[in-house]
Amino acid sequence: MPLYPSVDLHMHTTYSDGLDTPTALVAKASELGVWNLAITDHDTVDGLPEGIEAGQRYGVQVMSGIELTVQFEDYRDIHILGYDFDPADAAFAACIQRMQEARLERGLEILRRVNRMLGEVGKAPIDEQRVLARAQGAVARPHLAQELVEQGCVETFQEAFQDYLVPCDVPKATLSPQDAFRMVAEAGGICSLAHPGTLSSDPVEIERLLTTFGRMGLAGVEAYHHCHQPSFIDFLCQCARQLNLIVTGGSDYHGRPQGAVLGFLDVNKPVPESVWTELMAARTP
Fold first, then answer.
1. Cα separations (Å) of 148 from 121, 160, 229, 259?
2. Where is the Polymerase/histidinol phosphatase N-terminal domain (predicted)?
């Protein structure tokens, strides 16, 4: 495996909870030599037009992507990555619009709760219009964290979450796995289970989920992710082969100074080129 990145199938922009605009993200990818990528903002495709246009200018192939939140059994926050779909598909666009409206209301309710907490300790409230301008659409908790840091209420993102955003959290409005798989498939795309290691460390449970979701229409599993140890990556790749799933991977880059590095899983461990090859092969008729 080369020690430089060329592909990344999991990254976020200011249109969800990332800190880089789509243009800035693609420019950084170009500088690093990441020529194939997917922008996978949470529950929105609003940043795709800008990202694709930037890709044309910088010579980077930008694939349509999204990270959907679904609920299944006792799991309230499962993430599903959708790839290579038509974002203009009418049914897909209508569903995403509904999710965006719910996501915006969730973000604003968290903001209202945070402002109540700030008022109780004699601190100035966060300005809603500043947050909306920063978010470019759906307000996410990192946008609020950034405001809290810049306003001097806390020193770090970690403090912002610990002191304000976790206590003020609001449950997400989500889809079922079946609905997510169906809406992406009907728009011409395929789905991969994102970072399954965040769901469970039990191999038996992960295999059960992959088997169940595979029967529902899941096409892949994100084996390569910075939260996965090498042994777990090997296990997920083995599961994928046994269940006839493709293997995907990405940095889960958000642009945070101490977060994931674009194009990399870890130091000197770039996202393997094979994830792009497998995804392209899966989309070939």
1. 14, 6, 33, 18
2. 7-72
Q: Which residues contact 252 (CB under 8 A, 6 or more apart)?
A: 10, 11, 12, 195, 225, 226, 227, 260
Cα–Cα distance measured from residue 213 to residue 211, given in angstroms and rounded to the nearest whole number: 6
pTM comes to: 0.84
* Tens digits of residue pLDDT in 100-133: 888 888 889 999 999 999 999 999 998 888 888 8
CA distances to 80, 99, 163, 245 from 192, rounded to whole Å, are 6, 19, 33, 9
Q: What is the distance between the alpha carbons of residues 264 and 253, in angstroms, rounded to a whole number?
A: 9
Domain segments of the chain as ranges:
103-137+145-165
How many other C-beta atoms are found inside a 10 Å radius of the C-beta of residue 239? 21
pLDDT at 140 over 90: no
